[in-house]
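FAQ: What does a ligand-bound record look like?

Like this one, built around flavin-adenine dinucleotide:
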Amino acid sequence: MKKRINFPKIKGKLCYNEPLSAHTTFRIGGPCATWVEPQNEKELKNILKFARSKKKKIFIIGAGSNILFRDRAFNGIMIHLGSKNFRKIHFTGTKVTVGAGAMLSQIIMQACKNGLSGIEGLVGIPGTMGGAIFMNSGYNRVVTDSLDEIKVMERKSGNIRRLKTKNIKFAYRHSGLNSYIMLEATLRLKKNNRKVVTEERARLLGAKKKTQPLRERSAGCVFKNPDNRIPAALYIEMSQLKGRKIGDAKISEKHANFIINTKSAKANDVLRLINLVRKRVKSRFNINLIPEIEIV
Ligand SMILES: Cc1cc2nc3c(=O)[nH]c(=O)nc-3n(C[C@H](O)[C@H](O)[C@H](O)COP(=O)(O)OP(=O)(O)OC[C@H]3O[C@@H](n4cnc5c(N)ncnc54)[C@H](O)[C@@H]3O)c2cc1C
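The answer part, i.e. the structure of the complex:
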């Protein structure tokens, strides 16, 4: 690990040599040199300016549920929008304004309580609103189905802009928003019967629990579904790889597109398993599986 940098004073959380394994659902990852949680947009802008002046890499982390951090140290600045200002959820009729750091599960619960539907199809995804927009995440529905606009900060200038969903080129697990930091989202939901929305949420969660290893340490589906009707999980299953283990990383028996950390897996174990899957599926079916998870 390199020497600590003299970070500008901020009111938000700041720490050094923070283990990233504590901040990912995989529970994997080496330390990061600097971990920072800005208290507001002004502090975030100052951090970006500081990082640029010191030529430090930055990475924005949400709930860390779609990331595999390597075992070696990350020597840049890890920015987490975990402070109160970035986690606000505010309902005005059918409109909801949500901070990028708010957890999807909390937004869904509150929408159910208010008898609003449109977001319950994301139930069981353990991420933040910012991460979900960046990944264009979805289960029964995708996040962009009810997204009206987002407030972002330009990574280079620190300027704040509002982008309408219709002007963003969202695609399957892709947003193209790499030059921005998501700050806030505005969703348009539909009035519905509270009981109906709550039951739909429970039904979808029950279905997800039945087919996916939600209680294990993972980062969700490792590979994108290839551009045809056969899901990646089926190719992996047909390659007889269910249950295959390298170190403490294992291909889930329940859902072959999940790699789980059974105890204290290293990123390297997961990466070797990813390579094995890609090679096997390529040689048997001539299909190139592309990782959905981000490897940092
Ligand atoms: C058990 C399990 C089940 C899952 N099920 C699903 C599913 O059904 N469907 C699905 O699509 N995904 C699923 N996932 C994957 C993951 O939960 C989603 O992709 C989630 O939306 C990621 O959100 P996050 O906050 O954890 O993002 P992170 O993993 O922290 O980050 C993901 C990416 O988003 C970027 N990012 C995060 N926040 C911001 C921000 N504020 N501004 C700019 N960029 C940002 C990060 O830099 C990174 O590139 C699952 C994961 C697990 C562990």
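Follow-up question: can I read anything off the structure? Yes, for example: The chain has three domains: 13-84, 87-211, 232-295.
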